[in-house]
């Protein structure tokens, strides 16, 4: 598998449900942001969509939001705009179960026609916050935002998406301190790979 895609993590949220900055919350002694970044460390270019100076992440280029506070769809717009390669891995700070193997599986599922590859969660719903997106989506994403749309799941029409099952274990989403405690209890560090 070739790591020929750009990595991006969108980190411009308010963590209102978590109550403090969840990017910096510790899981097994490391910030959630570092868990996610580790899964994408093999990518040749790595973008962190965040306010300048807010986070220090070695080897990652900080890209400020073009529309601060407008949500992850705006984060995707900024990432697509700066992506040097055709394909972009796009994710958030709060999915600490992501692994290199997860991204390799998505990358292998790419087709020449697809504009995105998205994993399915345990209820078989696409999780747009941990996907591969093609750079050609930028005009569509900008048009959606200009029209007032903020739902990330509308970034790609379903018929231009490849959906991949069998990956839901990687998709635990930490939106609250209770969810973080549950992940810490369920996934001892020694079982991560
Ligand atoms: N760049 C950017 N990222 C965002 C923005 N809003 C949310 N995000 C990120 O999108 C990802 C998923 O969003 P949420 O889980 O809703 O995170 P959040 O908005 O910080 O949390 P809540 O306030 O509890 O909804 C996280 O990595 C957030 O940091 C934004 O305006 N800009
Ligand atoms: Mg979340």
UniProtKB/TrEMBL annotation:
Protein name (database record): Probable molybdenum cofactor guanylyltransferase
Annotated TM spans: none
Location(s) in or outside the cell: Cytoplasm
Cofactor(s) needed: Mg(2+)
Catalytic activity: Mo-molybdopterin + GTP + H(+) = Mo-molybdopterin guanine dinucleotide + diphosphate
Family, as annotated: Belongs to the MobA family.
Domain writeup: The N-terminal domain determines nucleotide recognition and specific binding, while the C-terminal domain determines the specific binding to the target protein.
Domain of life the protein comes from: Bacteria
InterPro entries: MobA-like_NTP_Trfase (IPR025877), Molybde_CF_guanTrfase (IPR013482), Nucleotide-diphossugar_trans (IPR029044)
Gene3D superfamilies: Spore Coat Polysaccharide Biosynthesis Protein SpsA, Chain A
Protein residues bound to GTP: 10-12, 22, 65, 94
Keywords: Cytoplasm, GTP-binding, Magnesium, Metal-binding, Molybdenum cofactor biosynthesis, Nucleotide-binding, Nucleotidyltransferase, Transferase
Coiled-coil region(s): none
Residues given in the record as Mg(2+) binding sites: 94
Enzyme Commission (EC) number: 2.7.7.77
Lineage: Bacteria, Thermotogati, Deinococcota, Deinococci, Deinococcales
Function statement: Transfers a GMP moiety from GTP to Mo-molybdopterin (Mo-MPT) cofactor (Moco or molybdenum cofactor) to form Mo-molybdopterin guanine dinucleotide (Mo-MGD) cofactor.
Domain MobA-like NTP transferase: 9-152
GO molecular function: nucleotidyltransferase activity
Pfam families recorded: NTP_transf_3
């Amino acid at each position: 598998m070739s790591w020929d895609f750009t990595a991006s993590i969108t980190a411009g949220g308010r963590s209102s449900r978590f109550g403090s900055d969840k990017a910096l919350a510790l899981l097994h002694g490391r910030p959630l942001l570092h868990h996610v970044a580790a899964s994408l460390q093999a990518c040749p270019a790595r973008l962190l969509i965040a306010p300048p100076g807010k986070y220090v992440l070695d080897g990652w280029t900080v890209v400020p939001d073009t529309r601060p506070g407008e949500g992850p769809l705006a984060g995707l717009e900024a990432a697509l705009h700066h992506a040097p390669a055709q394909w972009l891995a796009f994710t958030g700070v709060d999915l600490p179960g992501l692994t290199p193997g997860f991204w390799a599986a998505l990358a292998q599922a790419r087709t020449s026609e697809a504009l995105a590859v998205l994993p399915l969660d345990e209820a078989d719903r696409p999780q747009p916050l941990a996907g591969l997106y093609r750079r050609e989506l930028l005009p569509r994403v900008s048009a959606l935002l200009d029209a007032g749309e903020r739902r990330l799941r509308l970034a790609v029409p379903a018929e231009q998406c490849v959906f991949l099952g069998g990956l839901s274990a990687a998709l635990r989403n930490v939106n609250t301190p209770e969810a973080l405690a549950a992940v810490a209890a369920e996934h001892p560090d020694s079982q991560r790979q």
